[in-house]
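Notes on consecutive records. When two proteins share a document, each keeps its own sequence and its own token line. Never mix them. Below: protein one.
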Amino acid sequence: MSTATKNFITVETVVNAPVAKVWESWNEPEHIKQWCAASPDWHAPAAENDLREGGSFSTTMAAKDGSFSFDFGGVYDVVKHHSLIEYTMGDGRKTEIVFTPDGDTTRVVETFQAETENSLDMQRQGWQAILDNFKKYTESLA
């Protein structure tokens, strides 16, 4: 996969939950396995997360029919509790997630460096679908 692109894509949502709950849902492996999929025919059967600068993470994303799976992972560059996560993906691309609390809601803005194999629109739609699943799952915990 080429990482020569400097295109960045931003997806965002507002979660109807306080930042502490949003942070926990985003970062705890047992939660990640519940929401990290772009469509109902996919799931995340495994997740590991060492949330600290220099720590790594990995999530296995798989088709529920067993036809395909891949590991998505990287290393954390910056972790600021309840506010910011920056990481470098396994292929060298960068991602930033900003958590902005506003009372009982939290805005989550995720900006990632695009890859070159899929269209920008397809990547945006996929990452937004995962973020939408995150919102729905986290709000169901309230």
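Protein two starts on the next line and is unrelated to protein one.
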Amino acid sequence: MKLAVLTDLHANREALEAVLEHARAQEVQRYALLGDFVGYGAEPGWVLDTARELVAQGAIALLGNHDEAALKGAPQNMRADAREAIAWTQRQLSPAQFDFLRSLPLTQREGAILFVHANAVAPGEWGYVRSRSDAVASLQAGGCQYLFCGHMHDPRLYYLSGTAKCGDFVPSDGVPIPVPAHRQWLAVPGSVGQPRDGNPAAAYAILDLAAQELVFHRVPYDHERAADKIREAGLPAWFADRLSDGR
């Protein structure tokens, strides 16, 4: 089975449409959506409706911190402009879309795979996996063969050997990576809707369970159109500007 893992969609319709088209061309059979459907972008309702359709077809979907903020109100430690985007988002969503967000779990486990938005140590506290030590802590807490995390917008792959040695590297676009079962793996696919590694192309990953291979993909999309929609909505202009350079 080929499983596409998407995260941090951030209300970016153009990016999500491009990624879904690309995934279909890769003959993906199932999707996992790791949260942050809303925030920053101009089309939260469309993104949520698309996610609901995918879930109805068997996709996994999780709650992200921006999704939680849309439900409960933005926390004080969230940046002022991000809080502004959450307040705007709350005015755009329908009752059915709020209900969908309320239905989302923090984590989901399927066999040897654990999916979380942030990390497996304390999923609801929204801590980042920034280092090898963070990755080891999550792998040990998760007790799984494969752990997929969002929240960090930069693609990265960590691995833990049977002798507790951890390594990591930045994956290359489209290059299959063997992920055999004698190691544990933590993959951060990067962001669909708001990449932050200097590459504006949308990021996601595909796990081929039968082949035990993981491929990270970058998908160009019409980021100028997405940026124009952000400006037209009256959201902070730098949310639009950053889409063009992936920052």
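For the record: Helices lie at 13-25, 44-56, 65-72, 80-92, 95-102, 132-142, 223-232, 237-245.
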